[in-house]
């Protein structure tokens, strides 16, 4: 389990270093996942080396959402006061993303 955690943390550390050195505005956690994915695809890291910790983290994924959910309760008054704009922004942005995704898919299908 220690080796599995180490591999994931090494990918994150490399990503942190890249972000720090290059000063790019990109989440290091996402870059770390991309590095891990690249390492798995190229065979630098074997799936068996990280499968155990990955399964453990995925099975407990719901626990990672509890603290943000509790933190939302602190701002319940603000959320209630701004409920209509929040819902409207969520619906409009969802529709825009779905439309843009559909148009992009259709364009790529025509090109290919």
From TrEMBL:
Main location: membrane
Compartments in which it is found: Cell membrane
Transmembrane residue ranges: 7-24, 56-78, 84-105
Alphabetically ordered keywords of this record: Cell membrane, Membrane, Transmembrane, Transmembrane helix
Membrane topology, from the record: Multi-pass membrane protein
Keyword Transmembrane helix among record annotations: yes
Entry annotated with the keyword Transport: no
Assigned GO CC terms: plasma membrane
UniProt xrefs under PANTHER family: HOLIN-LIKE PROTEIN CIDA-RELATED (PTHR33931), UPF0299 MEMBRANE PROTEIN YOHJ (PTHR33931:SF5)
Record protein name field: CidA/LrgA family protein
Biological source species: Oxalobacter aliiformigenes
